[in-house]
Amino acid sequence: QSTWGIFDLAVEMGNSCAKSEGYAASSRDSASPREQLSNATSLIPQSPAVERKAQLEHEFSKYVSDTDSSVSSEEGFVRFFADLNVSMEDPLAFMVCYVLGVKTIGRIERGEFVEGMDKLGLESADMLRRKLPDIKRRCELSAEYPKFFAYCFDISKESVASRRVSTAVAIPMIELLLSAKFKLSQDFVQFLQQQHSTDQSFLKRDEWLSLLPFLEKYNDTGLEHHDQTEAWPVLFDEFVEWWRNKPSST
């Protein structure tokens, strides 16, 4: 990002400065205009925000490969969550990606890491680990969870332009994110496994986004009270019909 180009230039200029406070005035006077500007820049106290971003740049280097320092390696991505003591089978892992603004699951770009951590006021994975209870509480707020749930759809897509997710991906995501919240979600997963589990089966974006309010409405009251005249996706009408005809509901 362009912001980081400016920041990298400042760091480069700072690194070229003399590191000893006792450099001679004659050396300063004989320096080129560029060197004099660089030397002057090093004497300007850095703001806490700049210092934090410099620390985050260093912190991120622990998770990159030898060939590409702009993005975490696959091993680095795993190591990052190991440093947080968070399993990738825990919804909290996706909550961390959400608050950091990670756009592709399995990798973190340098800009995402630095900007996301900086917005949280954090400088290291250790500080983020101590912040995890707050992140979990924030994401589970009734006003925030739908945004988080929508985010999980977006990072599960095969491409940015796609508006659907294969059921092979959607099913484990639903189990991970909703099974502890809604008992009815387990029936929905079973329905998908039985009726929509082919290689050509997908969940559309509107179906995914409607699933959360659908479960919130019918998890406690039961599908016996489902009104087919309501404007739910057709897939949910199919689910209700399947649920009413399965042996356990009779």
Report the portion of residues in β strands: under 5%
Helix content: 55-70%
End-to-end Cα distance, whole Å, is: 58 Å
Radius of gyration: 25 Å
Runs in which pLDDT lies below 50 for 5 or more consecutive residues are 1-29, 40-44
List how many beta strands DSSP finds: 2
Structure notes:
This protein has helices spanning 2-15, 25-30, 33-42, 48-60, 74-83, 91-100, 110-119, 125-139, 145-154, 167-178, 184-195, 205-221, 234-245; strands at 164-166, 202-204. With 250 residues, the chain is mostly helical. The longest helix has 17 residues, at 205-221. The N and C termini lie far apart (58 Å).
Keywords:
2% strand, two-stranded antiparallel ribbon, elongated, 2 strands, mainly alpha, single chain, 250 residues
SSE inventory with pairings:
Elements: H1 2-15, H2 25-30, H3 33-42, H4 48-60, H5 74-83, H6 91-100, H7 110-119, H8 125-139, H9 145-154, E1 164-166, H10 167-178, H11 184-195, E2 202-204, H12 205-221, H13 234-245
Antiparallel strand pairs: 1-2
Short summary:
The protein has 250 residues and is mainly alpha-helical. Helices cover 60% and strands 2% of the residues. The chain contains 13 helices and 2 strands.
